[in-house]
Amino acid sequence: MQNMKTRPFDLNAIRKDFPTLSVSVRGKPLVYLDNAATTLKPKSVIRALNRYYKDECSNVHRGVHYLSEKATAEYERAREKISHFINARLSSEIIFTRGTTDAINIVAQSYGRTFLKAGDEILISHMEHHSNIVPWQILCEEKGCVLKVAPVNDAGELILDEFKKLVNPKTRFISIVYVSNSLGTINPIKEIIDFAHAHKIPVLVDAAQAVGHRAIDVRGLDCDFLAFSGHKLFGPTGVGVLYGKEDLLNAMPPAQGGGDMIATVTFEKTTYNVLPYKFEAGTPPIAGVIGLGAAVDYVRSIGFENIGTHEKELLEYGTRALKAIPGLRLIGTAQHKASILSFVLDKIHPHDLGTLVDEQGVAIRTGHHCTMPLMARFNVPATARASLAFYNTKKEIDSLVAAIYKAKKVFT
């Protein structure tokens, strides 16, 4: 991955980069602990979006006027940045999508429809987000494939031996989450990919919850596909990335038809554009892509070593603080975890808890987190989830704890 000089980690200065952190909620300073749902946006990303709409607003590709050429250059520069960010071999292996869900659906519908047949098995895990379950179910219903699910233990860890036992000559595809959005579990992705490739099975990695918190090297991992969303990477909503190895993307048909993915069109026959445009039908999320490029620059300026160190401290501090609350039980206690704390509290439904802590200005997420099968595995209808980012503080965790104690008083 391309080197970039990181700045000293100054938490106060970093927090000033995010305007939303200065917002007041119900008369109290905002405590934003919902980063697994979406991250806040730094000023540099907001400026990039504003600059495009104010000074460069035009459609990309094929235009010969100044604004179109300017917008196209910025758009393709963002592709180069993202290619370096995840260490892709070629920038043409970076496909812009609407997000992780869109990216997974593209692979399911294009690769799956083309290369999978009745009786073939697709392997996922019990901790997958719905976006890494439902597309494969749709494909299985259409093609007659079989969806297999690897179990997790009571700590929320993938049972790797059971995962490997499910691999057999019928296994034709594996799609696996890197970091669980509900549990924070970090899966041993490299080991999974190496095992799969030893059996000649391609692997898609859902990196939505990983991309903003740890360095990703697609060539080091040797994954065949990788998907992530811009809004989980401190960038805009409505934009994401599908990485795919060049030979696989070339072998796959377009997932959608329309402008920009064509080379020639007649009423008798259409020929398709080269990568990456073959998979980018229609007007793309131009502003979102440019904003995502700015987000990549920002994250790289902070540095993943700094991000990892700070978030690890927050996770350890938050784990101790929450465990000390009587009647609170953490859901997801994997040995290798990202900065996500899911929990349930005796006698208080997570939705009620979320409402009560919001009255104290604390934003957390409550519900099934688009992982209903996982909630069933832990025999809970929902959890409360506090998810941390590098701009969060220990004081904010203290505010969460204080808000939980106030909520408990309402129910006692």
Structural class call reads alpha/beta
Beta fraction:
15-25%
Contiguous low-pLDDT stretches (5 residues minimum) are: none
| Helix coverage percent | 25-40%
Instruction: Please indicate the count of domains.
Output: 2
What is the CATH class of the largest domain? Alpha Beta
Number of alpha- plus pi-helical segments? 14
- Kindly provide the radius of gyration, computed on alpha-carbon positions and rounded to a whole number of angstroms: 22 Å
CATH architecture of the largest domain: 3-Layer(aba) Sandwich
Largest sheet: 7 strands, mixed
Which overall shape is indicated by the principal axes computed on the Cα atoms?
A: globular
Oligomeric state of the chains? single chain
Strand tally is 17
CATH level 3 topology of the largest domain: Aspartate Aminotransferase, domain 2
Going across the biggest sheet, name each strand in turn. 4-10-9-8-7-5-6
Give the end-to-end Cα distance, rounded to a whole number of Å: 54 Å
Characterise the protein shown here:
The chain has 412 residues and is an alpha/beta fold. The chain folds into two domains: 134 residues, Aspartate Aminotransferase, domain 1, CATH 3.90.1150.10; 255 residues, Type I PLP-dependent aspartate aminotransferase-like (Major domain) (Aspartate Aminotransferase, domain 2). It has 14 helices and 17 strands. Strands 4-10-9-8-7-5-6 form a seven-stranded mixed beta sheet, with helices on both faces. Helix 7 links the parallel strand 7 and strand 8. Helix 2 runs antiparallel to helix 10.
